[in-house]
Amino acid sequence: MKNLISSVYFTKIIQYPLLSIITLVLLLIVCTLQLNNFRLDASADTLILENDKDLMIYRSTMKTYSTQDFIILTITPNASSIFDYATLNIIKSIKEDLENLDGVASINSIIDVPLIESSDLPISEMIENVPTILSKNVSLDKARAEITQSPVYKNLIISEDSKTTAIQVNIKENPTLLDIATKKSDLLTKIANTRSSDREIKELEILNKKYDSLKLAYDKEMNLLLKEIRQIRDYYTSKNNLEIRIGGIPMIIDDMVRYVKNDLINFGVGVFMFIFLTLTIIFRKIRWVLLPILSCIYSVLFMMGILSLLGWKVTVISSNFISLMLILTLSMNIHIIVRYRQLSREISDHIELVKTSASKMVWPCFYTALTTIVAFASLIFSDIKPVIDFGYMMVMGLTVTFFTSFILLPCLILIIGPETSVLHKNQISKSFFLTKYLAEVSIHQGKIITAFSLSLLFVSIYGTSLLKVENSFINYFKSDTEIYKGMKQIDDKLGGTTPLDIIIKFDDEVTDDEVLDSDLFDDEVLSDDDLNSNWFTTKKIDKIKSVHDYLDTQPEIGKVMSLASTIRVAEKINDNKELTSLELALLYKRAPNKVKKIAVDPYISIENNEARINVRILDSDKDLRRKELIDRIKFDITNVLDIPSSKVTITGILILYNNMLQSLFSSQILSLGFVMLGIFIMFIILFKSLMISLIGIVPNLLAATSVLGLMGLIGLPLDMMTITVAAITVGIAVDNSIHYIYRFREEYYKTRDYTIALKDSHDSIGRAIFFTGITIIFGFSILILSNFVPTIIFGLLTGLAMLIALLAVLTLLPKLILFIKPFGKIKEY
Questions:
Q1: Which residue in 320, 337, 350, 619 has the most C-beta neighbors within 10 A?
Q2: Is the model's pLDDT at 197 over the cut of 80?
């Protein structure tokens, strides 16, 4: 099979370079025609598990309580009080401008909240026309006192220090989109749990297409809406002495899409410039700069066209695929070029030189590509959709990289012709003293290498045991970004950012006799409000209050909102006396619809006989441990508040995000184990030796454990980006092990001397490994240009791991070969 592939490769492809290049160009044109379909995605869907059962609960809760997406504007006057009429009129103007925007359903602000204690109007008149802060007959001083002391409004629309207020912009729902998303989730769960039929698979494909189409339109609408909101923000901050910040999930999603776009450009340009500089320094010839660059550009454009054709979207996790493809393509190209230049001293015929160079590198590069493919393929074991997609994406990308490197590059070299001058061996050796030095270290400093490697391994294992899964949304962004400042402001001043819902299900109970015996329902025809009023009993309210008060004591929780908040406002008016069931029912019956919509409907579902308590988590709290908080809430509600666990459901974005984080541990172990097993099998196939296979894995395993250990030691948590570091490190770093062992074996069979073979290997393949290693290290360092902090950390950690792997391959690996002597007995001299 190997001979057949080689024969086809050399006779059908390399033999006709111009025809091969024309074919590649035509393929590229076909693919690039699809680039207008290239899509980015940073929605909440990219932060959840593919088949999370809690996702269905979350969507059901959203539907039951008509929960809308919203954007928060925080307003902080710099030279005046919020409760000045001038400031309130500015807020009124901002609200009016916001209401005129397409996509805005409603606005909640300090000038909209109903006030009971601040007006001189009798209660009977208030019911018909609930006053607000700008209403006539409302005392501004009384309004300030009522709003700042209200359990509902404090830390919701007004900060504790009364210096910051919030405008909540509720976004119009897209019921069709939500309905399709729910159907899609239901179908995915069914397919995952049972044997799916062809009809169900086809139905899922149709739903996916509809969802993607609607989601694309919705994202465009959100992007436009946010642009308009930012314009309003900029206008009012320029005209008035105040600070306005924007926050909310739609804002986070829109900014992340913008960051992904910027990352794609920055990474591409940054890596491209680095590649140009690296090739210039290494080869110092224009042909060896331009040819690899052409190869890199071709592979990236071809891959982008394939992604566009397949309709795959790029997320924050896969946004570095361009830089990865550039780095990996360049790495393979450098190996081919270095081999070509070495053989040019021995082979004068140019066609034969290209064929020999390609033939000697094709199989080790084939196996290095396979091992890297195995590394990225391991990501499909994750339950996190964007991680799975990234794995598939890079598997395809590496396939493109391999074929581009061994078809386009050799054909271009053949067309351009031979070099006019070639460096002699002694000239090349002088310029690569580092590999010669590392060869001497490997030969003479074996004990130091072994001791250092073992120490590093033990420390890394200890550090790995300290790994944790935790991170905050706010920590994903640099502190000078708009999104960070907005989230921080909401956290510090307005009760937190990340929502969490606790749903309490009540037992069916008989309505209190005092309600039934009253004349509350003496109408001949009972309205819905009449029928619903008897749902309100002191028993239910007391249970809601107990959970509300418990949640309010948790340090990680900011604002708590529930029906209890509204009831306590009513109790305050009632001389701080608790309301009876009759009074509760009467209060609900007489309350204006406007008040019900704001203060009651979001927190109870009479139809489902349940209540919702909404809390917001302080995402910037350094002591926040999501899983511990969730587990503590579940335990205390059941065991301290004596509410059966079957009657309590905890849901929300926090739960979905926590589920994703908790899956990272198992995914990391599974993916790393898959990589190690896959690479070990390939080593056995390639080298046909168990001992050599074990030796080859050691440097890469050391690199992977080192970076995980460092994360544990410095308290850096696993997240959706760093989960991929270990597997990718092993997959890429093992390429160097394959190339080195492959060449060492070749050099050993020439001399039958391990020491000479080591020196010759360092002097030949060692240079290529050093060049590609440095290229990869600095290539990953380009990721520091990102605005997305996990991407920066991913780049730095992977670069560090590749440095450890590079040094290990050029010191520890040759030392192990010298010690074990896996290729036969050393020749005596």
A1: 320
A2: no
177 and 268 share one domain: no
- For 588, half-sphere exposure in the C-beta direction (CA atoms, 13 angstrom radius) is 27
Strand boundaries in 422-573, DSSP class E: 498-505, 557-561
pLDDT band of 298, cuts 50, 70, 90: very high
Are 229 and 169 within 8 A, CB to CB?
yes
pLDDT in tens, 201-239: 787 778 878 877 888 788 888 888 989 999 999 999 988
φ/ψ of 681, rounded to 5, equals -65, -40
For residue 645, being part of any structural domain is answered with no
Of the candidates 651, 578, 581, 585, which has an alpha carbon nearest to the alpha carbon of residue 612? 651
**Strand arrangement of the beta sheet that strand 104-108 belongs to:** 104-108, 165-171, 70-77, 242-247
The answer to whether 404 and 69 have CB atoms below 8 angstroms apart is: no
Candidate from 19-33, 56-70, 354-368 with smallest mean pLDDT: 56-70
Q: Which 3 state secondary structure label does DSSP give 527?
A: coil
Please tell me the distance from the alpha carbon of residue 358 to that of residue 7, in angstroms, as a whole number.
12
Query: What per-residue confidence (pLDDT) applies to 310?
Result: 82
Domain boundary among 247, 266, 299: 247
In a domain, 259, yes or no: yes
Residue 179 lies in a domain: yes
Amino acid at 572: K
- The yes-or-no verdict on residue 126 having pLDDT over 70 is no
The count of structural domains within the chain is 3
State the Cα–Cα distance between residues 266 and 783, nearest whole angstrom: 8
* 172 and 220 together in one domain: yes
Q: What is the mean pLDDT of residues 231-259?
A: 84
627 closest CA partner among 653, 668, 662, 671? 662
Phi-psi region of 634 (alpha: psi -120 to 50; beta: other; left: phi over 0): alpha
Residues 720, 386 contacting (CB under 8 angstroms): yes
DSSP 8-state secondary structure symbol assigned to residue 77? E
Torsion of CA 394, 395, 397, 398, to 10 degrees: 110
| Residues 513, 457 share a domain | no
* Contact of 700 with 737, CB cutoff 8 Å: yes
97 and 39 share a domain? no
Contact between 747 and 821 (Cβ < 8 Å): no
Decide if pLDDT at 134 tops 80.
Answer: yes
pLDDT of residue 480: 80
For 506-526, what is the HEC assignment?
CCCCCCCHHHHCCHHHCCCCC
Q: What is the mean pLDDT of residues 623-629?
A: 81
Size (the chain), residues:
829
Strands (E), 87-129: 104-108
pTM for the whole structure? 0.75
The answer to whether position 331 is within a domain reads yes
- pLDDT at position 98, please? 92
| pLDDT tens, residue by residue, 337-383 | 888 888 888 888 888 888 888 888 888 888 888 888 887 887 777 76
Domain limit, last residue, from 214, 247, 280: 247
SS (H, E, C) 386-434: HHHHHHHHHHHHHHHHHHHHHHHHHHHHHHHCCCCCCCCHHHHHHCCHH
- Determine the average pLDDT of the residues in 574-595: 77
Tell whether the torsion through CA atoms of 786, 788, 789 and 792 is positive or negative: negative
The reply to whether 451 and 516 lie within a common domain is: no
CATH code of the domain covering residue 73:
3.30.70
Q: How far apart are CA 722 and CA 793, in angstroms?
A: 7
Percentage of the chain beyond pLDDT 70 is: 87
> Do 269 and 193 reside in the same domain of the chain?
no
Domain residue limits at 608: 498-617
Residues 380 and 341 reside in one and the same domain: yes
Asked whether residue 233 falls in the same domain as residue 259, the answer is: no
In the predicted structure, residue 394 carries a pLDDT above the cut 80: yes
Query: Which tokens in the block code for residue 392?
Result: 């598939």
